[in-house]
Amino acid sequence: MADIIFPTLPPRLRVELDELLPGFYNWFQDASKFFELVLYKGNGTLTAGTSTSVPDVRVLATTRIVVQPTNAAAAALATLPYPSAKSAGTGFTLTHANANGTETFDYILFV
What is the mean predicted confidence (pLDDT) over 49-63? Predict the structure, then answer.
């Protein structure tokens, strides 16, 4: 059996997150037509304290939620925001380290 030879890849270029997420979202929107997958996106700001309620009527009991910090303050939290609860038709709750209210994030809902 012949060995598979992969071409040498050029050095990776640093791509800013705001350039990646729209392309990622658009690709999944196109793929969702084939796989019958529905995606929604949103953004928000963490509230002061250790949890943030995110209202979004598109959340279902089976929804998968991906959260991405979008500023240095959010990325520097000891515990990054993660969805700890969801309520169908209402939204979800993010749990995180003690925030001061300036931390921002984007999210994608896989419905």
Answer: 95
DSSP 8-state assignment for residue 78: S
CB 69 within 8 A of CB 21: no
Classify 66 in phi/psi space as left (phi over 0), alpha (psi -120 to 50) or beta.
Answer: beta
**What is the residue extent of each domain of the chain?**
17-110
Q: Which residue has the higher pLDDT, 97 or 37?
A: 97
* Rounded-to-integer distance, Cα 107 and Cα 111, Å: 13
What is the spatial distance between Cα 110 and Cα 98, in angstroms, rounded to a whole number? 27
Please give the model's pTM, rounded to 2 decimal places: 0.68
